[in-house]
Amino acid sequence: MRKEFATFLLLVVLCVIVTALNPRFMSPANLQNTARLIGAFGIFSLGLGLVIITGGIDLSVGSAFALLGVLLSIMLTEWHLAWPVAVLAVVALGAVLGALHGLLSLAWGCSRSLSRSAGCCCIAALPDSSPTTRQRDLATPPGSRPCNYW
């Protein structure tokens, strides 16, 4: 109980300090945006918490989360898919990525940390190999270098 109260008190103190530095922090628009983000990251944190409680640390979750978020936005804006179809496709792809990591560690006897690290690296390298990224790299202004993972 004491630890929870101290954490809550720290949150209140931080909110007061940030509000003093930037009065727009407590604006309705910012609070609404923060509430939206808390929902998405809260669900994400619950899933990752289950992974950690069961004894695994999954390094590829952040990469998969970012990749699936980008794919969802591409499906909605560039491919003009209906949002239910795009969401189902992203959830299915997330399940496939998870199943591949499970297959690596369980069926092929690979260690969990190695399969997750390999998955993290492979997922992080995907955007660099896409045709869209290569086209955008050609349009990079002279004197600047595109960010590559390798």
Question: Mean pLDDT, rounded to whole units?
Answer: 78
Number of strands: 0
> Fraction of residues in helices?
over 70%
Alpha-carbon Rg, integer:
20 Å
Total domain units:
2
Q: How much strand?
A: under 5%
What general outline do the C-alpha atoms trace? flat
What is the H/E order?
HHHHHH
Furnish the topology, listing elements before pairings:
Blueprint: H1 2-21, H2 28-53, H3 61-77, H4 83-107, H5 112-125, H6 131-138
Helix pairs in contact: 3-4, 3-5, 4-5
Structure described in brief:
The protein has helices at about 1-20, 30-55, 60-75, 85-105, 110-125, 130-140. It has about 150 residues and is an all-alpha fold. It folds into two domains: about 1-55; about 55-150, no CATH class.
Structural features, described:
This protein folds into two domains: 1-55; 56-150, no CATH class. It has helices spanning 2-21, 28-53, 61-77, 83-107, 112-125, 131-138. With 150 residues, it is mostly helical. The longest helix is centred in the N-terminal third of the chain and has 26 residues, at 28-53. It is 73% helix and 0% strand. Helix 4 (83-107) packs antiparallel against helix 5.
List keywords for this structure.
150 residues, mainly alpha, 2 domains, 6 helices, disordered C terminus
